[in-house]
Write a structure and sequence with these properties.
five-stranded parallel sheet; glutamine-fructose-6-phosphate transaminase (isomerizing) activity; EC 2.6.1.16; 16 helices; Glucosamine--fructose-6-phosphate aminotransferase (Isomerizing); Rossmann fold; alpha/beta; repeat; 2 domains
Length: 346
């Protein structure tokens, strides 16, 4: 029987198309707020925080603005006022109902920030709290692991980048839905998929690594492996990995490496795959083109997209891998133990 997770990840091309069509007209609203701000503060938890990592690299590398992650505890626990004049606060929550995220956005506004929300919850408290609400069009998501709500968040952040003046081509974003549709088909037909699933089923943990624009993808893939497959997975920048944690990569702890098919971080990702294999560890690639595939033990295809928008497709083979691995391990990927669709933190 098809899992809800598999059904919902298959809905991503349509969800992305709806979201892009709905949000691209909002770039003027974003630009108006951007004219009064200098830097971007991202407020999020969980998968939304991984989406925020993409947003940060996008606005810094392509829009020339400082992007920083917020510490919600400063607002909700320490209750410390900070001067946020000149800051654009961007709060991200799939449901728009996580009280901590709503409270932190209200706090940011009270500290002088202009505010944007990214949520799939039209009419939610988070949508109502922001000056500009970017409502994604994922539709209802029933499986606990986020798939289409995550990728549509990335689409909303891509639109945010355009509104902030990123030097990127809107057409790259518009061709994303068709690229994802083809990527789902190519991944499920890839002979590497059952091989990687079978080999990961025999280990207790893995290291997931990427850098720059792909860093958020590595974090999200590691989170999905932990929550849906119950494996110990570390999500790391490959720069951080080389500073010490590389020691854990061995025959029983493989490396999963994610990269766009082009860009300045690709050579380092290929070098990391080669180093892992020379140490006797399996290295599995996601994306990275022919170069990464040749350096890895096995590799899944990535999207044929420029680096700036590649993460919107790059996570999809990872989602498929996780769904297949969970079922191989006898786990229902739709309802991981101990998790709910909306998580409240204090």
């Amino acid at each position: 029987m098809t899992s809800l997770m598999r059904a919902e990840l298959g809905q991503q091309p349509d969800a992305l198309r709806r979201t892009i069509d709905a949000l691209l007209p909002r770039t003027a609203d974003i630009a108006k707020l951007a004219a009064e701000t200098r830097q971007v503060l991202f407020i999020a938890r969980g998968s939304s925080d991984n989406a925020a990592a993409y947003g940060r690299y996008l606005v810094e590398s392509r829009a020339g603005r400082l992007g920083t992650p917020a510490a919600p505890s400063i607002a909700t626990t320490y209750r410390r006022k900070i001067d946020l004049s000149g800051v654009l606060a961007v709060a991200i929550s799939q449901s728009g109902k996580t009280e901590e995220i709503v409270e932190t956005l209200d706090w940011a506004a009270g500290c002088g920030a202009r505010t944007v929300s990214v949520t799939n919850g039209a009419g939610s408290p988070l949508a109502e709290a922001a000056e500009v609400a970017l409502i994604t069009q994922a539709g209802e998501e029933k499986a606990v692991p986020a798939t289409k709500t995550y990728t549509t968040q990335l689409a909303a952040l891509s639109v945010l980048g355009l509104g902030l003046g990123a030097d990127v081509a809107e057409d790259d974003l518009r061709r994303l839905p068709d690229e994802v549709a083809g990527l789902i088909e190519a991944t499920e037909a890839s002979p590497a998929l059952p091989r990687i699933v079978e080999e990961l089923a025999g280990v207790t943990g893995a290291v997931v690594s990427g850098r720059g624009i792909a860093f958020g993808t590595a974090l999200e893939l590691a989170l999905k492996i932990k929550e849906a497959c119950y494996l110990h997975a570390m999500g790391l920048s490959y720069a951080d990995l080389l500073h010490g944690p590389i020691a854990v990569v061995d025959a029983k702890t493989p490396a999963l490496l994610v990269a766009a098919d082009s860009g300045p971080t690709l050579p380092g990702t290929i070098a990391l795959a080669e180093r892992a294999r020379s140490a006797g560890a399996p290295a599995y690639g996601v994306g990275g083109g022919d170069g990464l595939a040749a350096a890895c033990s096995a590799a899944l295809p990535g999207p044929g997209l420029p680096e700036w928008v590649a993460p919107l497709g790059l996570i999809v083979p990872g989602q498929i891998l996780v769904e297949n691995l969970a079922r191989r391990l006898g786990i229902d990927p739709d309802v991981p133990r101990g998790l709910n669709k909306v998580t409240q933190t204090t």
